[in-house]
């Protein structure tokens, strides 16, 4: 066994130190935002920078979570993240399983058409016209149906389904199972790593819904959390921020910077909580779907 020299140890130590330093630099903004969110407005105004509050307070969080505008926006984002993700996984997995069956007529043509959707972007106007003609403007479905699935995710999940032996399907068919039964009872339970990986992708996308809400939503009650967060963070002199601040504040002064930081933390934490539970499936689900295709 090769014994490490002093230069090897110095080199490894310097690399480790550099990585730790980079990690601390990347984590510092989130730590600072979190610290400010637990700081009282008076202390925040008195100090140039708050790294550790003298007195930790939950006032900003209490105010946000008791405010109708913010809670409605959070509820809308939660609805998009749960219902939207579930529907997207159903559509994506069903399409990928169908395309993975070699007996499907026109299979190659469908694959080429799906691949073309990943190469060419129609822009903003065609999707908007479709949503408008379907009378989906100012409905929650305008934020789900246009992004219900992704051609790239369908192709990757198809690669995962290709790795499942055909004998399992044949055995199920002998027992009297239909194609729908095979997909629901056999394929989906075996696809948990892939579903977890793509479910995380979809959940993050739905939770961070912003641009589509700007295009399709004008009703205040249907605004997702990212829209409200953007209105809180931009200059209070703008009309959008003034509108949301007036709705949220009422007789209370316009929210302070501590309130804005608390809103950022609330918008970030749910995804940070979900990711550790899916991490063990994440790498396996993506790699299997991308290697075999």
UniProtKB/TrEMBL annotation:
Which Pfam families does the UniProt record give? BPD_transp_1
Location of the ABC transmembrane type-1 domain: 74-278
Query: In what way does this protein cross or attach to the membrane?
Result: Multi-pass membrane protein
Where does this polypeptide localize? Cell membrane
**UniProt keyword annotations, A-Z:** Cell membrane, Membrane, Transmembrane, Transmembrane helix, Transport
Enumerate the SUPFAM superfamilies for this protein: MetI-like (SSF161098)
Q: Which family does it belong to?
A: Belongs to the binding-protein-dependent transport system permease family.
- This chain belongs to the protein called Aldouronate transport system permease protein
- Its source organism is Paenibacillus qinlingensis
Species lineage, top-down? Bacteria, Bacillati, Bacillota, Bacilli, Bacillales
